[in-house]
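Lecture 7 notes: from sequence to structure.
We start with the chain below.
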Amino acid sequence: MKVLRTPDEAFARIDDFPFAPHYAEIADRQDGTALRVHYVDEGPRDAPVVLMMHGEPSWCYLYRHMIGPVAAAGFRVLAPDLIGFGKSDKPAAKSDYSYARHVAWMRSWLEQLDLKNITLVCQDWGSLIGLRLVAEMPERFSGVVLSNGGLPEGGPAPRAFAIWRAFSKWSPLFPIGKIVSAGTARGLSQAEIAAYDAPFPDSRYKAGARIFPSFVPFENNVAVPDQKRAWQVFDQWTKPFLCCFADQDKITRGGESRFIGRVPGTAGQNHRTLRGGHFIQEDDPQGFVECVLEVAGK
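Predicted structure tokens for the same chain:
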């Protein structure tokens, strides 16, 4: 497996991400390739863990407005970059990626740090990977806060998602920062757009971002059986599970209905609608933080 690593200088001009980098090296379980995972680690090391997982095509910069307030409330906040994104290593070939591999990579990272008593905070692919981690290691997790994501197990793809999937596969241009900006309600500044572009100095670094949408298990995707096994866990999940979807996300709006009432842990939670687009961390970070503290504090 050929692996690329974004040079540190690519991130030098980002002035609104004041978090020290941390790194862990994991081994790919298929061929043993060493991969470096970058993560933010803020707050007391012995405090309950809040794990913030980003999705496509962002990186942990997405949570920059949430990390500080949650850490200040007394929690240990970890925000990793998925392999292929941010400051983490980037396998160069699309064929190096799969949904199962992403789950295995992040499981290796989580087990290496031996994280426990975790509240998962997730959105987009952060939920597809994060919820699978919860299902595989339920004893390590104490709660879930889900926004603008899901755990699909087959069925037709929503039209908005099908269009996005085709764009990611066929468009000759794939402007990461502008894509994230288009997924917000407020729009991003040029500096913020540049920060989302920073992990990808050129097209060689975008294999993971390009291929990700094709892995979402709609239709007869190879991951559907794994999804159904994960749902068997959530059909019996009694720990807190709070949904806070956005009111302006064309892809996932209404997705909370797939969880509320089905997952036992959703009962009695203060589910709410946040104001913003798909990247709700950019539009309503304060509202999202309130949801996190509500669950993590239980």
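Points to note: The beta strands are 3-4, 22-27, 34-42, 49-53, 76-80, 90-91, 118-123, 141-147, 241-243. The chain has a mean pLDDT of 97.
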